[in-house]
Amino acid sequence: MQVDRNTGLVLEGGGMRGVFTSGVLDAFMKNERYFHYVVAVSAGACNGMSYISRQPRRARISNIDMLVKYDYLGVRQLVSHGCIYDPELLYERFPNELVPFDYDTYFSHADTFEVVTTNCLTGNAEYLSELSDRRRAIDIVHASSSLPYVCKTIEVDGVPMLDGGIVDSIPIMRAIAQGHQRNVVVCTRNRGYRNTGKDRKIPKFIYRKYPRLRVALSRRIAVYNEQLALVERMEDEGRIICIRPQRPMDVDRMTKDADRLEALYEEGFRLGCDFCRKFG
Question: Pairing with 232, which of 95, 115, 206, 221 sits 20 to 30 Å away (CA)?
Answer without folding.
Answer: 115
